[in-house]
Amino acid sequence: MNRQSGVALIMALVALTIVAGVVLVVASQLHGLQISSRHDARGAILASLVDAAFAEALAHLADDPNFVGMAARRYGRGEIASAVSPAGQTSRAVSATARFQGWTARIDAEVDITTGPRVIRLRRSEAFEP
What we know:
This protein has one domain: Pantoate--beta-alanine Ligase, Chain: A,domain 2. Helix content is 48%, strand content 36%. It contains 1 helix and 5 strands. The chain is an alpha+beta fold. Strands 1-2-3-4-5 form a 5-stranded antiparallel beta sheet, covered by helices on one side. It has one helix at 2-63, and strands at residues 69-75, 78-86, 91-100, 103-112, 118-128. The mean pLDDT is 88.
């Protein structure tokens, strides 16, 4: 009878060890998904903010070809700014910036202003600034 009890105890311990391992793997996967979803949400917010700053700069350029940009200010849950400078007689260099939770997104573009603002070149970037 003692031998059977010992084998049953060992089997129960092995089963508990396997269950604990499975729980750890599942918890690790859930943590990874949580981090990934936070990253995706931050990226979506940053993209929305920098797109808003860029759209605002284009709207101002449509109204005034000598527009020079907007100073940094709060917008929604982040901060946006834009800067515009001449890049030729009929084009402007537009830089739109957004900041959110220590991250910065930026759009740098060359815009033709002869037929209203028309984007010629555009580059996006994102960086962490502690």
